Amino acid sequence: MEAARREAEAFYARYGEPLTLRGLFYILVSRGVIPNTVSAYKRLSEALARARYAGEFPWHLLKDTTRRREYKEPLTRYPTSPLTPEELARALEEYVRSRTEVSVNPWEDQPHRVVVVVEKEALGDLVSRFIDEAWGRGVYQVRVIRGYDSATDLHELARDLSLIPAHQRPVVLILGDFDPSGEDIARDFRERLTMLSNRKDIVFEKVAVTLDQILEMRLPAKPESLEELEKMRRDPRYRAYVERLAREAERDERVRRLVEMYGSPEIRVELDALAALRPEEFKRILAGAIAKYFDEGIYERVTKPREERLRRLAEEVRRESLESVRRMLGGG
Q1: Among 85, 11, 67, 71, which residue's Cα sits nearest to residue 276?
Q2: Is the pTM higher than 0.90?
Q3: pLDDT tens digits for 115-135?
Q4: Is the N or C terminus of the chain more exposed, i.e. has fewer CB atoms within 10 Å?
């Protein structure tokens, strides 16, 4: 528990997001604190539950998104007494400032618009935070699909993509596990979204977890136990997945090294492992994948000058409006 708390606190302090139980497990395995087995994972889960109930492990350091949450709007609070002249002046000035803020979408003139799709719900907030920190220019959407996406959710995304102007090409970046289901989820998502959107120009790219990332970062890529291995073998996509890796190992040096590294083509790597063990690399992967579709030249020549012109105009309007407010209040 001491090591678990130390690692969880360090991650939260640096990235402002809690770890998933799976992510904390991978970190402790990599530190040699616990073995990479299903039984160790279950014991960790039970021990963390007891520690949190006892107040020995802070609740905010772990994230559980396996349950649906309902969010309710906060109650709107209105002042119960009239505003003083000073309070009214401040309120009016704040209103003027808020209504004259200028925000130009940096993607407005770009040839592409990016959607980031995350297979794991527990990692959705972290991915959004990393995009903001490492890229800072946002994307069209960040969507969590929780495995094989529902027809309803895919239909909504297809509708959203239809709103992207025809001169801009949608780009869908997929983040998911490297295993029979994770690889097939990317295929299934690509085929169904293409069918529903009626757009034939969508670019699909799985940016994590990839074979090269497993090799370069030596991510844990082996089922933790016979139980996990049997579970993977029951996956209806298992046979095609293993046969594909075996065939690729015969002609691709990278795949051959991967199979040799782990002793078998029965390889399974979770996105949680990349996010928890190599968060800085994960952040760079996200930023690089997005930057590839952003034309800096267009931004500097077209978008940025327009934004600067609008900001100057907004500043003039703000200054004149504030002067009018002050004259009105002073005259009253």
Answers
A1: 11
A2: no
A3: 999 998 889 999 999 999 888
A4: C
